[in-house]
C-alpha cells in the first residue's frame, strides 16, 4: 500500500526550509500535493506548544510513522491553489474512457446462469432511468462506503433477511454487506483570540477583506482562501498530556471479541506505536454551534479551534437500503453509525476534549487567547466533559468498512483481489473495503487502493 499511495502523488517541495522532510512523498503521480503556503501566525504556536508538552516534532509524517506534531501536506495545485483530486486521473486516460455524469447506478445486472464455480457473473449495470450499460469483462463499484453497499443490496447481494424485507430476490447471501461501518469521531474546543489578532473568521464579518482575499486567490497570490489547516499531531494514549488512560482496555482482554475488535485492541497496545488520537489546529471558529450572530457582542471577534479525533472506535454501525422507500435502489440509504455506544468510545472522546484544554493552556499557545468560548469554564467534571462530548462530538467524514476485505466466514464482502465473495467479476474499489479504521485521514489510502486495484485488473 505504501508504494501504491506514493504512486498517486506529485509533491511540490516548498521553498521554505524545514516544513517537510524527504520521506513519504513522491513526484510523478497525478495528485498534486503542497505544504500550504498560508499559515496564520497563531497556528505557528501549535507545534511548539505540543513539543513543550513532551511530544516530538515530526516533519516526515507521511513516511509510515505519523507519531508527533508537524505540517501536513494538502492536495492542492501549486499553480493556482485549487484542489487537486481524482479528476486528475482523467488526463491520463485513453480515448476508450467515457465518463457519464448526472447518472445514478441502480443495480448490477447478472447472467441468468452462474459459472462453473457456482459464482455470479456480472454482465453490466442498470441506471435509474432504465438504461443498461453492458460489461465485457467485469464491473467495478466505487460508490463509497455509504453507496456501494446499497448498490450491492439493490442487486440481490447482501443479508437475505434485509433483502427479503425490501422485496428483493437474494442472488447471493452475504451478511457482511453494509455492516461494520466505522468512522472517526471528533470533538473540539474553541478559544477567543486577543483583540489584536485576526483569524480566518475575518472573512465572515469583514466583506471588504473577504473580497480582497478572494481577488488575491484569483491572482494566485497568497490569500486567506489558501487555508487548509494542515498542522496536526498523532499520539498514542501514553503520549497524551494529562490524560487519564485507565479506561483504555488491555489487548489481552476479551479474547472472544470479533476479529475487527481484536485488531483494534492490538492497536491500543503501546508497543505497536499505532496512533490512538489525532490533534488538529483549525484557524477560526469551527465549533458545534455557529459563529456569533451579527447582533451579538462577540460579532467581529476572532477565534481558533482545537480538534481531537479518536482513531479506533469500538462502536460499529451499518448502512442498508431503505426498505420502506418506493424505489430502494435510488432512495437515500439508512445510515446508523451508532456513535459512542461502546464505553471506550465515550471515555476516549471525553478525555480527548479535556486534552484540548490542556494544550490551549500551555505556552506559547496560551499567550494568544483571552477566553474559552466552547465549552467554557463551567465544564469541569468528567460527567460534564462527557455530556459536552456527546453533544458537540461529530463525524470526521471518514466512513469505512461496509464492504470489508476479509474472509467471508467472519463477515467479509470482498477478497484480497477486491472481488465480491461469490461473484466472478464484480469488484469493490473504495474506502468501504478497509476492514479496520486506519490511524489517518483516509483519502490517500483510497488512492492507494485504486492504484492497487488498477494493477490487479490489468494483471487479470
Helix content: 10-25%
Tally the beta strands: 18
* Helix and strand element order: HEEHEEEEEHEHEEHHEHEEEEHEHEEH
Could you give a short account of the major beta sheet? 7 strands, antiparallel
- What is the CA-CA span between the terminal residues? 19 Å
- Structural class computed from helices and strand pairing: alpha+beta
Give the full name of the CATH homologous superfamily of the largest domain: Glucose Oxidase, domain 3
Q: What overall geometry do the principal axes of the alpha carbons give?
A: globular
Structure, explained:
The chain has helices at residues 2-7, 46-52, 148-154, 160-165, 202-205, 207-218, 259-267, 343-360, 382-392, 443-459, and strands spanning 9-12, 31-34, 68-71, 105-110, 122-127, 132-134, 139-141, 157-158, 172-173, 185-193, 231-235, 277-283, 303-310, 318-320, 334-336, 369-374, 394-395, 426-428. The model has no long low-confidence stretch (mean pLDDT 94). The chain is built from ten helices and 18 strands. It starts with a helix and ends with a helix. It is of the alpha+beta class and 460 residues long. It has two domains: 39-72 and 184-395, Glucose Oxidase, domain 3 (2-Layer Sandwich); 100-181 and 400-459, FAD/NAD(P)-binding domain, CATH 3.50.50.60. The radius of gyration is 24 Å and the shape is globular. Strands 3, 10, 11, 12, 13, 16 and 17 form a seven-stranded antiparallel beta sheet that branches. Strands 4-5-6 form a three-stranded antiparallel beta sheet. Helix 8 (343-360) crosses helix 9. Residues 144-158 form the Glucose-methanol-choline oxidoreductase N-terminal domain. This is FAD-linked reductase. It comes from Phyllosticta capitalensis. Belongs to the GMC oxidoreductase family.
Amino acid at each position: 500500500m505504501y508504494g501504491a499511495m506514493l504512486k498517486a502523488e506529485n509533491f511540490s517541495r516548498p521553498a521554505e526550509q524545514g516544513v517537510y522532510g524527504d520521506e513519504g512523498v513522491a513526484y510523478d503521480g497525478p495528485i498534486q500535493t503542497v505544504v500550504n503556503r498560508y499559515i496564520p501566525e497563531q497556528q505557528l504556536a501549535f507545534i511548539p506548544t505540543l513539543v513543550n508538552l513532551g511530544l516530538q516534532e515530526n516533519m516526515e509524517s507521511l513516511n509510515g510513522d505519523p507519531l508527533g506534531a508537524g505540517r501536513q501536506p494538502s492536495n492542492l495545485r501549486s499553480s493556482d491553489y485549487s484542489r487537486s483530486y481524482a479528476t486528475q486521473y482523467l488526463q491520463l486516460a485513453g480515448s476508450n474512457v467515457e465518463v457519464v455524469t448526472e447518472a445514478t447506478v441502480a443495480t448490477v445486472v447478472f447472467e441468468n446462469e452462474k459459472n462453473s464455480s457456482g459464482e455470479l457473473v456480472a454482465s453490466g449495470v442498470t441506471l435509474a432511468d432504465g438504461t443498461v450499460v453492458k460489461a465485457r469483462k467485469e464491473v467495478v463499484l466505487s460508490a463509497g462506503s455509504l453507496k456501494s453497499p446499497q448498490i450491492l443490496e439493490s442487486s440481490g447481494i447482501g443479508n437475505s433477511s434485509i433483502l427479503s424485507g425490501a422485496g428483493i430476490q437474494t442472488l447471493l447471501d452475504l451478511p457482511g454487506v453494509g455492516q461494520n461501518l466505522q468512522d472517526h469521531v471528533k470533538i473540539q474546543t474553541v478559544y477567543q483570540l486577543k483583540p489584536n489578532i485576526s483569524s480566518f473568521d475575518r472573512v465572515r464579518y469583514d466583506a471588504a477583506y473577504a473580497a480582497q482575499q478572494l481577488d488575491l486567490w484569483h491572482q494566485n497570490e497568497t490569500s486567506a482562501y489558501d487555508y487548509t489547516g494542515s498542522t496536526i499531531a498523532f499520539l498514542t494514549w501514553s503520549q497524551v498530556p494529562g490524560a487519564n488512560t485507565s479506561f483504555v482496555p488491555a489487548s489481552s482482554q476479551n479474547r472472544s471479541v470479533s476479529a475487527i475488535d481484536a485488531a483494534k485492541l492490538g492497536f491500543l497496545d503501546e508497543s505497536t506505536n499505532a496512533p490512538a488520537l489525532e490533534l488538529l489546529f483549525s484557524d477560526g471558529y469551527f465549533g458545534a454551534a455557529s459563529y456569533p450572530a451579527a447582533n451579538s457582542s462577540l460579532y467581529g471577534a476572532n477565534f481558533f479551534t482545537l480538534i481531537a479525533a479518536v482513531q479506533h472506535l469500538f462502536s460499529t454501525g451499518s448502512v442498508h437500503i431503505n426498505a420502506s422507500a418506493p424505489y430502494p435502489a435510488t432512495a437515500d440509504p439508512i445510515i446508523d453509525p451508532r456513535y459512542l455506544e461502546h464505553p471506550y468510545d465515550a471515555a476516549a472522546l471525553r478525555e480527548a476534549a479535556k486534552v484540548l484544554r490542556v494544550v490551549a493552556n500551555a505556552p506559547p499557545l496560551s499567550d494568544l487567547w483571552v477566553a474559552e468560548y466552547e465549552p467554557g469554564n463551567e465544564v469541569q467534571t468528567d460527567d460534564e466533559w462527557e455530556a459536552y462530548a456527546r453533544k458537540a462530538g461529530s463525524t470526521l467524514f471518514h466512513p469505512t468498512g461496509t464492504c470489508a476485505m476479509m474472509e467471508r466466514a467472519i463477515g467479509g464482502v470482498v477478497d484480497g483481489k477486491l472481488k465480491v465473495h461469490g461473484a466472478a467479476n464484480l469488484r469493490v474499489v473504495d474506502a468501504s473495503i478497509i476492514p479496520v479504521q486506519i490511524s489517518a485521514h483516509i483519502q490517500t489510502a483510497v488512492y492507494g487502493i485504486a492504484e492497487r486495484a488498477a494493477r490487479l485488473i490489468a494483471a487479470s
